């Protein structure tokens, strides 16, 4: 009799937990569907971005490297010549409380750093040293120095094509100079598409490269 009751209790418990198991299975299936969908997209893009054109360096790294070298030579190594001037700006030598604008030079610097310095610069460096050895630090420093010239162009374009509302609110960034800058070259439609794509990728990147990556590294 007791055995019969025990079997009945277990059967009832199984009936109650069956919907939960089904929901868990559906959630897993949904995750797999999302993973498969993005995996198919990434599978098409990765071979292009990480294609090695005869040298053991991905295409995307070569594009960034040669772009940084080009801008560095074009400006006469301004990233080295103007280093002292950059420090003076950061220290507030040229600050004027009466100048128009919402933030100071130092606040602009810290805002830019907040968007570039994160777990990727911490965990990413650790992974690079672990995979490539101590010599990876030297190459990261050199690429960072040359990359200053490319960053200069990004910031300059953002200043040239920013929009200021009547109340003084400033709007700017790659979305604006892609659209407005290419419009001046007669490529307004292309610029608008690139601006929208960049904005969408920024939103997606804030989840994958931002929150999810931070949660993964914290765990």
Would you summarize the structure shown here?
Helices cover 78% and strands 2% of the residues. It has helices spanning 2-49, 59-74, 78-81, 83-91, 105-116, 119-132, 135-160, 174-184, 188-218, and strands at 163-164, 170-171.
Description:
It contains 9 helices and 2 strands. A two-stranded antiparallel sheet has the order 1-2. The longest helix is centred in the N-terminal third of the chain and has 48 residues, at 2-49. It has helices at residues 2-49, 59-74, 78-81, 83-91, 105-116, 119-132, 135-160, 174-184, 188-218, and strands spanning 163-164, 170-171. It is mostly helical. It is 78% helix and 2% strand. α8 (174-184) runs antiparallel to α9 (188-218). The protein has a domain at 161-219.
Question: Could you outline the blueprint of secondary structure elements for this entry?
Answer:
Blueprint: H1 2-49, H2 59-74, H3 78-81, H4 83-91, H5 105-116, H6 119-132, H7 135-160, E1 163-164, E2 170-171, H8 174-184, H9 188-218
Antiparallel strand pairs: 1-2
Helix pairs in contact: 2-7, 6-7, 7-8, 8-9
**Which strand order do you get reading across the main beta sheet?**
1-2
Number of helix segments? Answer: 9
The profile of the biggest β sheet is: 2 strands, antiparallel
The share of residues in extended strands comes to under 5%
Structural class: mainly alpha
Mean pLDDT: 77
Written as H for each helix and E for each strand, in order along the chain, the element string is: HHHHHHHEEHH
Give the CA-CA distance, first to last residue.
49 Å
Extract low-pLDDT stretches.
Answer: none
Principal-axes shape call: globular
Determine Rg (CA atoms, Å): 26 Å
- DSSP summary, beta strand count: 2
Share of helix among residues? over 70%
